[in-house]
Amino acid sequence: MKKYQFGIYIGRFQPLHLGHLQTIKLALEQTEQLILILGSDRIAPDIKNPWSSEERIKMIQSCLTADELKRIYFLPIRDWLYSDNLWLAAVQQKVFEITQGNPKIVVLGHRKDTSSYYLDLFPQWHYLETGLYQALNSTDIRRIYFEGKDSSYRQFLPLGVAQFLDTFQKSDRYSTLCKEYQFVQAYQKAWATAPYPPIFVTTDAVVVQSGHVLVVRRKAMPGLGLIALPGGFVRQDETLIEGMLRELKEETRLKVPLPVLRGSIVENHVFDNPGRSLRGRTITHAYFLQLKAGELPVVKGSDDAEKAWWMSLADLYAHEDQIYEDHFQIIQHFVSKI
Ligand code: NAD
Q: How buried is residue 313: exposed, middle or buried, by Cβ count under 10 Å (0-12/13-18/19+)?
């Protein structure tokens, strides 16, 4: 008889390393069943979250025996960057579906830094602090992996994960991510001599008409090829609204007169999650433009956009894992107001 009926271990596991595996083994000693919550589900692949939940599950499965796997539930859960309550509701609901109200539940984890604040959000469950294993962290492992100079990252990984990463190294996605890694490094280096770390200001336009949102396909790194909102950096000589309208027109050639667009702004909101952009701290001012019902105006991708088009909201939800940065959550903010 184990001390707890259920253990919960939350992580991104990008990738799972020996420290994570140590915790899983500890959890299996202390609990009858283990719920592994794979955070950041359905994020478009980038150098911080390169692998899908399905790929992460495969990596984890490769490190465990069939008997161990019989005691493990995998729960992918997406992020709500701007609402811990919505994230917690999803965690509570999915955990309840498995535990059915059994109170003998323990959360395992390691409070490594301020990013581990979420471990304090479960007062209803016990907590088991695992401590730090060999100072390993996935960020350093990904850095070595995407620098591509050597395979020293392998020593920090269970064999199955190392083999998965070897195979992944032959994929197109790996070369794209390596280029993105180089791009981000060069970008940050260019700003390294500034007297203070920079804070970038951008705007985004959420233009909606009759259940469709205007989107573009990115022509440049980072996020090359991903679906995004029209938007970009604010210039020195323009207001936020002017910047937003300029980028909107430049990237989509939206055939609606500027005064009509100005009159269609119904709301705006600041999105400032410190981790929302890999280039550096970027605060975006998003504007919600609701156009009158009718035939969708003509659009055409140009400037930084390879393509512009009206995407139905259903299609948008189906393609969440191809949407750049937090743009899915920005759209959701405006279109799913109760
Ligand atoms: P992670 O893979 O970095 O770490 C998972 C766990 O392992 C953590 O407890 C960490 O401290 C521990 N760990 C890491 N290295 C270790 C080592 N060497 N030895 C021992 N333990 C070690 O994952 P994470 O980023 O902490 O995952 C949290 C997930 O929860 C993310 O996906 C995050 O987005 C999600 N989340 C979402 C929201 C929201 O959407 N509002 C809020 C909070 C958290």
A: middle
Q: Which of 108, 118, 129, 137 is the pocket-test mutation for ligand 1 (most atoms within 8 Å of CB)?
A: 118
Query: How far is Cα of residue 81 from the mean position of the Cα atoms in its chain?
Result: 8
Please indicate whether residue 53, judged by its CB atom, sits closer than 6 Å to ligand 1: no
Closest CA to 153 of 272, 162, 116, 41: 162
Is the pTM value of this prediction over 0.90?
A: yes
**Mean pLDDT estimate for the chain:** 96
- Would the pLDDT of 326 be above 70? yes
78 lines ligand 1 (CB under 6 A): no
Spatial distance between the Cα atoms of 58 and 160, rounded to a whole number of angstroms? 9
Containing domain of residue 312, as a range?
A: 200-335
> Is 134 inside any structural domain?
yes
Query: The domain that contains 79 carries what CATH number?
Result: 3.40.50.620
